[in-house]
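ok so for the tutorial part 2 we go from a plain amino acid sequence to predicted structure tokens. step 1 is just haveing the sequence, like this:
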Amino acid sequence: MHPIVGWLFAMMVAFAPPEKPSYDFPGHDETVEARTARYVSIAEDVYAVAFDPDVEPLYAGPKGRQRTALLVLSIAFHESAFAHEA
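step 2 — the prediction. this is what the tokens look like for a chain of 86 residues:
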């Protein structure tokens, strides 16, 4: 796992711990293992896009891509709390 993917995953766990039930989203129940695996997949996907050299980051500077990736995760969290489709 790339260190940035690990960092993104850690941010997701801080926002919405996998062991915490999704009370706000009934019908989105899944095991902790399944949720953790899905979080890793999301972190990998966000990394792939935010660090693609053909994609311009939203922020400039040496940490612009990291900041862009974190913004994407923040929006995803506020839209769905990383809940899976029912």
